[in-house]
Design brief:
It is a single chain. The protein is α+β, with helices and mostly antiparallel strands. The protein has a single domain, classed as Hotdog Thioesterase (Thiol Ester Dehydrase, Chain A, Roll). The protein is about 15% helix and about 35% strand.
Length: about 325
């Protein structure tokens, strides 16, 4: 007898199911350095350990927020091994910033299901909404968010099963978060003379030059992402790049546009508007939406529109990301 190894198909999911058996992962210097080599991020605190200690008060350096969310997304793919596409993320919020040395583990719970209308010549699919929560080695909440994945049905779904048609448009947090500077942080060492006040940036746009997408399967493996579409081109005819890879490159481009960006506090939304393949070159157009004064520093609301370029082909939109960044 041969047992097929992999996660559930759409018709095997039920609301309330949870997946939490992915290996825990310790954030090491090596892991952080490899992630940075793929993403090119330039956040000051993960790069400068003495500065990180002065600002955060912790002996261990700050880990990149992109590394933390990439690990959480990767660990959640126990539920989405057969994913065909990730449609969106909603309401990601950092409850605590992760540091090198922290060990992350993640739980994904099915909170909504909707089967798509069947189309001639296409395999049947459905949308699964997941609530993803990530904690550290002390069970302290690091981040949580919602994601929506499109999954195929299995080869022989039960004809008598109830076909789910939930409205997934309301998936996400029920209230808007209150953005604050992480507890115990002192932003004074980050302030440099002559820097424009963050509030003056509202309404401006910044176009950032391109970055090639490379080491895509390596990043998926690094972050425990087992979705087959990122590893096996036979799944969809081409190997798709992990969505977290695109988002991490978008953050790297934002750090070039805004050297004063301290960290990411959360996302309002993140929509994958098109597929990305290895070898594509990504560019960003970043708009400053709003500036929210905090007790210390500013929460800057940003929108990043990412486009992919391949040879002489027309640029194609691949990401619409709305996030909140902390500025000193």
């Amino acid at each position: 007898m041969t047992t097929q190894v992999g996660g559930p198909y759409f018709d095997e999911l039920e609301v309330g199911m949870s997946f939490d058996s992915a290996p825990s992962l310790t954030l090491t210097d090596g892991l952080a350095s490899t992630h940075r080599a793929i993403s090119g991020e330039r956040l000051r605190l993960p790069l400068d350990h003495p500065l990180s200690s002065r600002v955060t008060g912790a002996a261990a350096p700050l880990a990149s927020p992109a590394l933390a969310w990439d690990v959480a997304i990767g660990q959640s793919t126990l539920a989405t091994h057969h994913v065909k596409a990730n449609l969106f993320y909603r309401g990601l919020r950092f409850h605590r910033q992760a540091h090198v040395g922290d060990t992350l583990r993640t739980r994904a719970e099915v909170v909504g299901l909707r089967q798509n209308a069947e189309r001639p010549g296409r395999a049947a699919t459905g949308l699964a909404a997941l609530r993803v929560t990530c904690v550290d080695q002390h069970d302290r909440a690091i981040l949580d968010f919602y994601r929506c994945a499109m999954l195929p049905l299995g080869g022989a779904p039960d004809p008598d099963r109830t076909i789910p048609h939930q409205d997934l448009s309301t998936i996400g947090p029920s209230t808007n978060p209150t953005w604050t500077v992480p507890d115990g942080w002192d932003l004074a060492p980050l302030r440099r003379p002559g820097t424009r006040p963050a509030a003056e940036l509202v309404g401006e746009r910044f176009a950032v030059s391109g970055d090639v997408v490379s080491s895509a399967p390596e990043l998926a493996r690094l972050t425990l992402n087992i979705a087959a579409v990122h590893h096996d081109e036979r799944v969809s005819g081409t190997r798709l790049v992990y969505g977290g890879h695109t988002i991490s490159l978008a953050l790297a481009q934002a750090t070039r546009a805004f050297p004063e960006l301290v960290t990411v506090l959360g996302w309002q939304s993140c929509d994958h508007t098109g597929p990305v393949t290895e070898g594509d070159t990504l560019t960003s157009l970043i708009e400053v939406i709003a500036a929210q004064p905090l007790a210390e520093g500013t929460a800057l609301h940003l929108r990043s529109l990412v486009s992919a370029h391949a040879g002489a082909a027309e640029a194609r939109p691949v990401l619409d990301w709305r996030f909140v960044a902390l500025f000193a």
